[in-house]
Amino acid sequence: MPVPDRESEPSTTRDDGTTVSLPESVAVVARRSPGRTAVFDAGGHISFAELDAAADRWAAAVADRVSPGGWVAVCGRRGSALVAAALGCLRAGRVYVPLDPSHPAERIALTLADARPELVLVDDHAPAAVADAAPALDLGAELAATTTRPVRVFAADPAYVIYTSGSTGTPKGVVATHGGLATLVRALCSEGPSLAEGDVVLSVASIAFDMSITDVFVPLAAGASVVLPADDRTRDPDVLLDLIDRHRVTTVLATPSLWRMLVLAGLGTSGRQRVRAFGGGEKLTERLARELLERTASLHNGYGPTETTVYSTFAPISDPARLPLGAPIAGTRLYVLDEDGDLLPPGPRGELYVGGLQVSTGYHRRPALTAARFVPDPFAGVLGARMYRTGDVVRLSADGDLHFLGRTDDQVKIRGHRVEPGEIVAVLERLPSVRQAAVLVHEDTLAACVVAEPGHAPKADEVRAHARRFLPEAMVPSRVAFLPALPVTGNGKVDHAALLAWQAPDGPDEQTGPDHDGAPQGPTEIAVAKTWGEVLGRGDVDALTSFFDLGGHSLLAMEVVSRLRTEYELELPVWELFAEPTVRAWAAVVDRAASAPAAAADAGDSRAALSPEQRALCHAERLVPGITSPGLTVRANLTGPVDAGRVAEALAAVVRRQECLRTRFEPVAEYGSQLVSPYVEFDLFEEDLRGAADTAESGSDEAMHAPFDLARGPLLRAALRQFEDERFELEIRVHDAVADAASLGVLVAEFVDAYANGPAAEPVAVRFATLAQARREASSGVALADAVTAFGSALTDTVPVPEGAYATGLVPVRLDAPAVQAVSDLALARGVTVECALTAALLRVLPEEWGSSVVVARVEPGRSPDTRDLVAPLSTLTLSAID
Predict the structure, then answer these.
(1) Which is more confidently placed, 806 or 755?
(2) Looking at the domain assignment, is residue 406 inside a domain?
(3) Exposure of 836 by Cβ count < 10 A (0-12 exposed, 13-18 middle, 19+ buried)?
(4) For the sheet containing 434-442, what is the strand order?
């Protein structure tokens, strides 16, 4: 039986047979809400009116150069310019062909050879071969303003082409229609995400991935704002969480692999924005569903092949043990058929077929494959209707839910990308030293079994490097085994079941080859394994075992990432690290990052780990920008003739001597690093207040109290105010991330010495970077992480948290002489400091006064003889809880 027909939903077709296209929907929003922000990107933001005008200009430029229905390839950085150009192609009635500039040049060349575009739109991110493939226009070009007449399109007209993995080794183009796209817009505005004006959608998909249609263009048609991370940040969960909080994102559509990374990085934890979560592209697991239900505002599971215009179903999820594919969206029909093409009742397994308005026209230049996969729909009751044969095995339950069971072929999904193992095999067998290859899938990773040509001995790194020339990273095998021959079944086909024994943990080691066992190999693998062992509290670490199977969890994983970033002074892509959490895979990521062009840190900057206290401050700053300012303040009264120039020189000398005063932090630095510059310029505000009333406000107050920018620095500023001819005040303000209260005395003392005697010759001997690393190591590890979790649970269970708004205040307490003497005597008798004795007294009194549990925080100076002259955030906070 078919899943209920939804094609009776309101039509997207006009009386003349033309379709209300997606670009027309964007234009309607621009007229209704011209000032609403359409796109946030790395360069800023643009309104719907600006986006619509830019799309008009691109539509005119494209129409002048491309024949009606012609193809236009677009390859460039993610941003408003690319979005406007794509909308312009659609508005002009031309076919939009997105190309990801990060894909291997050879794969892009194969795509271009198949697509044969009449025009390419590029920027400096696009490989040179793209601009050579056809006449080119720069995405940054200044186009003349125009008022072009919109081109009306029909439902069957092609709108865009997405190239997916092909079993022959050549990507195949799926041609989606304007009717299918318009139907998708209407469906996602009325069900599933129910996108509307006021929503903010975070876009995470590659422009060459069909999910970019639903996280960029469909939201814009609905009137929602879209946040576009930079290309190199779309898989960094720290960056994405920062964008979610900063832009108050309401909706994210992503693959389960990316959702898993976001959960690990702290999605939905206390104080963070909670989003509506939509999955798709991969199977959603019960464990991930449970975590997302706890961390998001709502959760939907989505399903849909590229061939049926991205999404075909959505299912609201409330029980992680029940994860159906969902009901068909408006305009879509689903059928569960047996091998003879007959409808199946609830219960039996069958293949899923999708019919309706969103079925694409087929594969470009692949008539035989199109005929095999896009077949007549005998159940539609409409002449010429077709349905797509998905190859997915499903079961229809008695309550009408569809459940995914597997595939009829060997196609798989790896981190949301459709992968045809046959395409990988075809690429591997192009390597002259490879005679035969087979590719297997095990726990979301790819493994290659290779038979070498006689007289050749290829290495695994050589095989993977060859694969990367032609394939996206998700399709590059993470493991390579060399076998004398591939096992075959009785009918002569490769015996994949026998090959799976090689992947099993207890499989025969000799099959993997001498250089592919579990022992770390090479300096990078050895260094990564050492870091894992330190954080996990283990000795030897196997190079092929998952970090999480070794007892790790999300906090420890991010600790390892931070240490590696610091040790190698590299910006490591967190997405790649967590996609395959083994020592071998992480070492490969480190090596790739090391061979890439230098990161954005200024020349001469040195990278250092964050101390736990700095990490907490950076985390707070990410959640609420400016909350950690204005910092610490010290004022010194200066008398006599004061030379402002010497004041500036003396302060500069202190800054040169104290590295923390030359420190800034990475823009996303909860688990990042601090960057120490060899030289910084700071603000010294000079103000002459002679003759001003004593109550007059200082003109420099606003500048001194402005929030510090942790990413840009400097994190010190000063003001020199003159009240009389020989009476001055010097105010110095520093951020808590680079100093503590005890540092203020050091800072003033060093300033006075430098002003009177000239700058000190040498910097302070003790480096805070070394201390920070030691503190990080002391505050990490499995045992301590478990203790922190337990302590946090204890506080949650025993200490009441006020609800709603509540007041805070400073209550000064003055002790008379007898009380001071009594406390001093008690401290001496118990062998503790007076501060400890006072804290104990406070813990004794407060519960009696409040009648409930109390937590008292006490600042420990954290200083020693070696660090007494250091300006640094050395103080620590000690929490004491008592019933």
Answers:
(1) 755
(2) no
(3) middle
(4) 434-442, 445-452, 479-482
- Indicate if 497 and 554 belong to the same structural domain: no
For the cut 50, the answer to whether the pLDDT of residue 507 exceeds it is no
More confident residue, 519 or 16: 519
Q: Is the pLDDT of residue 219 over 90?
A: yes
Q: Which residues pair with 177 in a beta bridge?
A: 158
Confidence of residue 7 (pLDDT cuts 50, 70, 90): very low
Residue 399 lies in a domain: no
pLDDT confidence of residue 797: 54
Half-sphere exposure of residue 851, counting CA atoms within 13 Å on the CB side? 0
What crossing angle do the helices spanning 768-778 and 612-623 adopt, rounded to 10°?
90
Which tens digit of pLDDT belongs to each residue from 27-37? 999 999 999 99
Q: Is 777 exposed, middle or buried (0-12, 13-18, 19+ CB in 10 A)?
A: middle
Both 37 and 135 in one domain: the answer is: yes
Provide the 10 A C-beta neighbour count for residue 849.
Answer: 8
Residue 643 lies in a domain: yes
C-alpha–C-alpha distance, residues 578 and 572, integer Å: 11
Residue 666 has pLDDT above 60, yes or no: yes
Q: Are 163 and 96 part of one and the same domain?
A: yes
Looking at the chain, the number of H-run helices and the number of E-run strands are 27, 38
User: Which residues does residue 414 pair with via DSSP β-bridges, in sequence order?
Assistant: 417
Q: Are residues 434 and 540 in the same domain?
A: no
Structure confidence by residue, pLDDT tens digits, 70-102: 999 999 999 999 999 999 999 999 999 999 998
Q: What angle do CA 119, 153, 53 make, to 5 degrees?
A: 65
Q: Do 688 and 785 belong to one domain?
A: no
- Distance from C-alpha of 193 to C-alpha of 349, rounded to nearest angstrom: 29
Does residue 527 share a domain with residue 504? no
Would the pLDDT of 8 be above 60?
no
Looking at residue 568, what is its pLDDT? 74
- For residues 576 and 258, what is the distance between their CA atoms, to the nearest angstrom? 10
Residue 692 makes CB contacts below 8 A (sequence gap 6+) with none
Q: Which of 461, 473, 478, 476 is nearest to 427 (CA)?
A: 476
Q: For residue 853, what pLDDT is reported?
A: 60
Residue 181: which of 303, 87, 79 has the closest Cα? 87
Average pLDDT over residues 525-553: 82
Check the CA dihedral 248-254-258-264 and report its sign.
positive
Find tokens 């979610």 and name the residue: 244
Domain total of the chain: 5
Do 319 and 451 share a structural domain? no
Residue 19 burial class via C-beta count within 10 angstroms: exposed 0-12, middle 13-18, buried 19 and up: buried
pTM: 0.64
* Domain boundary residue, one of 482, 512, 542: 512
Q: Binning pLDDT at 50, 70 and 90, where does residue 862 land?
A: confident
Report the pLDDT value the prediction gives residue 501, as an integer from 0 to 100. 63
For β-strands 412-414 and 417-419, DSSP reports them as: antiparallel
Q: Give the span between the Cα atoms of 348 and 342, in whole angstroms.
A: 12
Q: Domain of 497?
A: 420-512
* Token pair for 293: 């239900």
**836 CB contacts (<8 Å, ≥6 apart)?**
827
- H or E stretch covering 395: strand 386-396
With respect to residue 1, please indicate whether it lies within any of the assigned structural domains. Answer: no
* pLDDT for residue 217: 97
What is the radius of gyration, based on Cα positions, of the chain?
A: 32
Residue 876 three-state SS: strand
Tell me what the pLDDT averaged over the chain comes to. Answer: 82
Assess contact for 277 and 296: CB atoms under 8 A.
Answer: yes
Given a contact cutoff of 8 angstroms between Cβ atoms, the answer to whether 352 and 405 are in contact is no
Alpha helices in 306-413 (DSSP H): 367-373
Which of 375, 393, 411 is the last residue in one of the domains?
A: 393
Same domain flag for 553 and 488: no
The domain spanning residue 315 has which CATH number? 3.40.50.12780
Q: What percent of the chain has a predicted confidence (pLDDT) above 70?
A: 82
pLDDT of residue 592: 80
